[in-house]
Amino acid sequence: xxxxxxxxxxxxxxxxxxxxxxxxxxxxxxxxxxxxxxxxxxxxxxxxxxxxxxxxxxxxxxxxxxxxxxxxxxxxxxxxxxxxxxxxxxxxxxxxxxxxxxxxxxxxxxxxxxxxxxxxxxxxxxxxxxxxxxxxxxxxxxxxxxxxxxxxxxxxxxxxxxxx
Length: 164
Fold this sequence. Notes:
Blueprint: H1 13-61, H2 66-74, H3 80-85, E1 90-96, E2 102-109, E3 111-113, E4 118-120, E5 124-130, E6 138-142, E7 152-156, H4 160-163
């Protein structure tokens, strides 16, 4: 008798089930990474928008004198463009007087929503300093001579009369 050996031309059901389960596992892993990456990019974009808003607000406030800055902080609002991009953001400001300076502290809280969860971020805070005089002109004053050479130093305009 002659034995004929047939070559197998297809996959078995077990091989197909193992392949399908491996493929499903890899696809779920890729989908999870993709969703997390999207959230990370969105959060990064929101942080950048918030920092830009804080920087713009602080830049404006530090150009004002103390009474003007206090009045501006009382009516502080997020710009319309930022409000569209970060609808749940809130902006607060205060003036602090540590020894030797006057500081403006701005805090922006970003809360975002996604389809499945609410995201809470730590608030972003920027600190700026107000100038002590409304006229921050700088005069060049000669430094007192100690070694016979004359140097030029920068002194605020208000101190110019006191040092002479």
